[in-house]
TrEMBL record:
Residues 166-215 form the Galactosyltransferase C-terminal domain. Residues 69-131 form the Glycosyltransferase 2-like domain. InterPro entries: Galactosyl_T_C, Glyco_trans_2-like, Nucleotide-diphossugar_trans. This is Sugar transferase. The lineage of its organism: Bacteria, Pseudomonadati, Pseudomonadota, Alphaproteobacteria, Sphingomonadales. Pfam families: Glyco_transf_7C, Glycos_transf_2. The keyword Hydrolase does not apply.
Amino acid sequence: MTAFNSVSVLTLIRGRQAHFDHLIAGLRAQVSQPDELVVAYMQPDPPDYPDDLTFSVRCVRVDGDPLPLAKARNSAAKAAEGDVLAFLDVDCIADTQFVRRAREACAADARQVFLPEVRYLPAQQGSWMTDAEVPDYEKLKAHGERHPAKPNLEDCSIAPIDDFGELWGLSFILSRGTWKDAGGMDEAYIGYGAEETDFAERLRASGAQLYWLGGTICFHQHHTVCKPPLQHFDTIVRNARTFHDRWGRWCMDYWLDDFARRGLVRRSGDELQVLRRPSRSEVEASEQPPHVRFS
């Protein structure tokens, strides 16, 4: 076992101050506090946060448009000082065991990458906080829904993952050394899509392995879902081409296939041709009603 004592929680933000407030509340409720929260902010000013936290907050500005997600994660990792890097989406409220499980998992095997369970919350059903301004975990558990494509981890400590495509940005945990061995994220990916899948391939190439991590849940706060994400059409196409250039295969096939069915693109072998961009009405029609929690 390796001695891993310090944990940095890392998050990215553009807007979503209310969601960030809830993320902070979740970290304050941890049975084992993080050593720091590193915030890569992709907006003019850093987000607001309380001045009485028991852990430090380090804010790093990341410029760029569209969303420079890969660059922001690299910037957060570079600024972090912890032995363990626990990436947590700004929309997530971690349960009280998140930091403890992150520390334990990396101490048990510092070469691996761990994916906690995520449960999706519905559009706001009142406040997710108690009157004492701490997360109402009973309510969160009652309303959180597991993605149907993800396993039930209630009776699981850790379990290996064969498909590296399971890596997702909502939450993943790894040691600083594993992050460095993989080389961080490729900043050629700009905007939405593919940077996580590319990082998974980098992890595979570096010899790391993915594991599901039981014993903790991250509750994803609701925001509008678009199916498919036509608002990100340009960056998805660009990043899909970049990924193909890197790895000789396509990613985001489900979105590219949907684009093809709509007559937006044509994919043949190594070529991805844009036939037309989606209209404003098509983008608006892709927005799902509030009861839809995930794509």
